[in-house]
Amino acid sequence: MGDKKGIRRFGDCWIPMDETLAHASVDVRVEYGRDPHHIAEAEYKAIARALRAAVEPDPRVGGIPSTKGVL
Q: Which residues of the chain register pLDDT less than 70?
């Protein structure tokens, strides 16, 4: 992500602001599906796409997307 200038940010995400947080967890709601293997594949793919969208450059953003100027 380099200096983090011009990246997107999640707009709908709750993250605790605890500096000592050692682990992260992700909650995924599965609306439907029968095959656990395919459900797990879909969950991983959805998380990967969300992370990619969160860090890809956004031409509408100039500078670091933070109110404090640091990310």
A: 1, 9-24, 69-71
